[in-house]
Design goal:
This protein starts with 22 loop residues before the first strand and ends with a strand. It has 126 residues and is of the alpha/beta class. The protein has a four-stranded mixed sheet with strand order 1-4-3-2, covered by helices on one side. The chain has a four-stranded mixed sheet with strand order 5-8-7-6, covered by helices on one side. 17% of the residues lie in helices and 32% in strands.
Length: 126
């Protein structure tokens, strides 16, 4: 299959159509702690809850938090805010840790209480 055209060897067209989504899943050892953090600290709206999963509406991203005693490696989602510095200070004050990016001084991710990374991006709020 050609990378540039995503066609099969015989030129019949793509075997699959891939489209991005606005959903991401993370795995944590405690849903109770995750519910508190993502609801109370981050302010996300909990839209569904089972004994093994939480589903949050975070704005443009649907966040699924799955119970897993062995959390998996994480994607790094980003969340938009009107004031990045204030948001990062708020989160750090509640126990989140900055993770500095060596190749880009002054920039960093945030590590949440579960060891997962995410980015805070300052963008105009609609």
């Amino acid at each position: 299959m050609s990378e540039s055209s995503n066609q099969t060897e015989n030129g019949a067209g793509p075997q699959f159509v891939f489209r991005s989504s606005s959903e991401i899943a993370v795995h944590v050892a405690s849903l109770e702690k995750a519910e508190h953090f993502y609801s109370d600290v981050m302010g996300f709206r909990l839209v569904a809850k089972t004994g093994r999963q939480l589903e949050f509406d975070t704005g443009k991203l649907r966040l699924y938090v799955n119970l897993d005693s062995r959390p998996l490696a994480s994607y790094v989602p980003s969340f938009d805010v009107a004031d990045r510095q204030a948001a990062c200070e708020y989160l750090e004050g509640l126990g989140c840790k900055p993770v500095h990016i060596a190749s880009q001084p002054g920039l960093y991710y945030i590590r949440d209480p579960f060891g997962l990374l995410f980015d805070i991006v300052e963008r105009k709020q609609d």
